[in-house]
Predict the 3D structure of the following.
Amino acid sequence: MDMTIGDLVRFNEFLDSTIDQKNLDEEFITLRQAELEGISKNSDVKYFPFVALSYAKLMELTVLLAGKYADNCQITDFGDLVINPRHIDVCILNARSIKEDYGITGSIPLWFKKQVQECTGSQYSEDLGKMAVDPTLLFHFVEQGLLLRIVKKERHGRLSDQFRDCIPYDAQSAFSKEIEEFNPIAHNPVKDLGCGGGKVACLDVASWLASNTVLNVVKGSLKADLIDVLRDVMSDDYLKSINTKFEKAQDSLAYINMGRKNFGNFPYNEEVPISEWAEINQTLCHFTLDGYGMIQSELDKSFSNPCYKSPFLNGLLYNAPKTQDTNVTLCPTPARISLPIAPPVCMTFTQ
């Protein structure tokens, strides 16, 4: 048996044997995703149908988990699974050096992102200062003195709480003067803003972060990563069905979160009239492993018959050249681009 096929068979057998719906969580799927990425890396294109269906099984588990979180009003877990990136780096800019050496008087974060764009040839996002570039590239900017350091953001908690101590002393002094001028009445602005015991008010920490840092999305949410992989390899109908299920999960979460049904034994507490059960059942997800089973059936057919073309896959996938290409991967990458190490010429910056 071909090594790649053998690895995929073993991966799927292990996945099938270790699924526990009651204890299924994001960590389990993420670990399986990392294993599958290792198998699919540098795979020949002829194996893409098998790899794609294996990724689809992970997507089905993600949908199942999203429905579970939604039906149980686990807002934080749902947000982490579907929306919140798993890894964000906060890149602290050397604002003083950039102002003095390059004469930048406008938005320093925007200027820096334009330098990243020139080096990578990719587009950048201005939304909340976010970027999506290979972290390796950013260390070249550290060496050039444009970045002071790169700090991984805590997944939960406010940026102002985590990065208050990162503000240089002179910046803290400037903020303190602004606070005194704006608040002549003797009171503690930090306490009023609920920031704890920091030296700088939350509002000013947020202002400093906006002016002196950019966010780099290193690892998106599990849902986003899997969608990036499946977008070009699965059929439109399948992708629409996945989006429909996620929309169903969001509706379920909103329904419960509105407080319309807030009972300890939701949804079938004795306080809930029987007449409302139909509405509840129609709104909640109640997702099962049926979708997972259908994908596994397609995978079994593909393994047993190399000529079988699964309707769940994009037909163009079967038309790809069957030549060996060691540079081809079916793995998610930041911003769906491949970033090489920037050559020295890219490190000459202009305003």
